[in-house]
Design brief:
Rossmann fold; 10 helices; 11 strands; 35% helix; 21% strand; globular; binds S-adenosylmethionine
Length: 291
C-alpha cells in the first residue's frame, strides 16, 4: 500500500499509518513474529484503494462498508454494534442488505442497537430475514442517560435475525447477556467501545461459529472476541483512527492467543456463559406463541 493509495481513503492519518505499518515501526515490540509468520500487512491489493490488513484468520478493511461489503462472501454470521445516533440510522438498511449478500444461507445476524430510533432500526433489517428474537445486553454499572427521553438506559437490545428461513436457536438459549470486563477498559479504545468478554459471550451463547463479519468494527472488539474463541473474523471500519486501533489490538490478541490454550482468555467466560443457560428442559415453560 503506497502512501498515495492510503490517501484515497483516509487522509493524512491513513497515509502515516500505512507508512508505519510497512516498517512495523511504532508498534509494541514482540509483535514482529506474528507479522512475519502471516500474510500480515498492507499489501497494495487492497480493494480499489481501500486499506486492507490480513493476518491468520483475520481480514480488516478500512473503508465504507457499503463499498467494501460487495467484496466479501461466505460469512457464517454478522455480529455488529452500529453507531446509534440519528444521522447513522439511514446507513443500516444498505449495510444490512449488503451483509445479506455476503452471508451464507442460514447465517445469523446479531446486531446490538440503541433504542432511541427503534422503529427505524427494526425497519432496516432485510424483509427476507427471519426475525428470531430480541436479546437483552445489560450495561451493568454504566447506565446511559438518554436526556431528551428522560431515560437512564440499563440495557440494549440484541436483534437476532436469521437468513434463509432460519427460525430458531435450539438448543435453548438464555436471552440476557451480561458484560464481563468493565466499561472503562472498553471505552479506553473507542468512545462507543464494547466489552470483549461480553461479545465473546454473545458468540458462545448463540452458537456463532466459522467466519464472523462486523461491518461497523470500531476498535475491533468483535474481532478480538472471535480470536479468543477460535472464530475467523472479517471487520470493516471507516475511520482510519479506529481502524488503526483495531489492527493494533488484534495484533496483540493474535499474539496472546498463539501462546495460550485454544480458548485463550475466554475459558472462564465460556463456563459463565454456559452456567447462565437453562438446560434443555429445566426452567423453560414451553410456549407455542412464536409458531
Ligand atoms: C458503535 S461503533 C462500534 C464500536 C465497537 N463495537 C467497539 O467496541 O469498538 C460504530 C463504528 O462504525 C463506524 N462506521 C460508521 N459508519 C460506517 C460505515 N459506513 N462503514 C464502516 N464503518 C462505519 C464508526 O466509525 C464507528 O467506529
Amino acid at each position: 500500500m503506497s502512501t498515495a493509495d492510503a490517501n484515497i481513503v483516509g487522509g493524512a492519518h491513513a497515509a502515516d499509518f500505512a507508512r508505519r505499518s510497512s516498517s512495523s515501526a511504532g508498534y509494541p515490540s514482540g509483535l514482529e513474529r506474528v507479522v512475519e509468520s502471516t500474510k500480515d500487512g498492507f499489501d497494495g491489493r487492497g480493494a480499489g484503494g481501500l486499506l486492507k490488513w490480513e493476518a491468520e484468520g483475520v481480514t480488516l478493511y478500512c473503508g465504507d462498508s457499503r463499498e467494501v461489503l460487495p467484496l466479501i462472501a461466505g460469512v457464517d454470521a454478522v455480529v455488529t454494534d452500529p453507531p446509534y445516533k440519528r444521522e447513522f440510522i439511514e446507513l443500516y438498511a444498505p449495510v444490512f442488505a449488503a451483509c445479506d449478500r455476503a452471508m451464507k444461507e442460514s447465517a445469523l445476524c446479531v446486531a446490538m442497537c440503541g433504542q432511541a430510533f427503534l422503529p427505524q432500526v427494526v425497519a432496516s433489517f432485510p424483509a427476507a430475514w427471519e426475525y428470531i428474537w430480541t436479546g437483552c445486553y445489560m450495561v451493568n454499572g454504566a447506565r446511559v442517560p438518554i436526556w431528551p427521553r428522560g431515560i437512564s438506559a440499563g440495557w440494549k437490545p440484541l436483534f437476532i435475525y436469521g437468513k434463509g428461513g432460519k427460525k430458531g436457536l435450539k438448543p435453548w438459549k438464555m436471552d440476557v447477556v451480561n458484560p464481563v470486563d468493565g466499561w472503562a477498559e472498553a471505552m479506553s479504545h473507542h468512545e462507543w467501545g464494547q466489552d470483549v468478554g461480553g461479545f465473546a459471550k454473545i458468540l458462545l451463547r448463540f452458537d456463532i461459529e466459522g467466519t464472523v463479519l462486523d461491518p461497523f468494527m470500531g476498535s475491533g472488539t468483535t474481532g478480538i472476541a472471535c480470536i479468543r474463541t477460535g472464530r475467523k473474523f472479517v471487520g470493516i471500519e471507516r475511520d482510519p483512527k479506529h481502524f488503526e486501533t483495531a489492527v493494533q489490538r488484534i495484533r496483540v490478541a493474535l499474539e496472546e492467543c498463539a501462546s495460550e490454550l485454544p480458548m485463550g482468555g475466554m475459558v472462564g467466560e465460556r463456563q459463565q456463559a454456559l452456567e447462565l443457560e437453562p438446560s434443555q428442559t429445566d426452567n423453560v415453560r414451553i410456549s407455542d406463541d412464536a409458531t
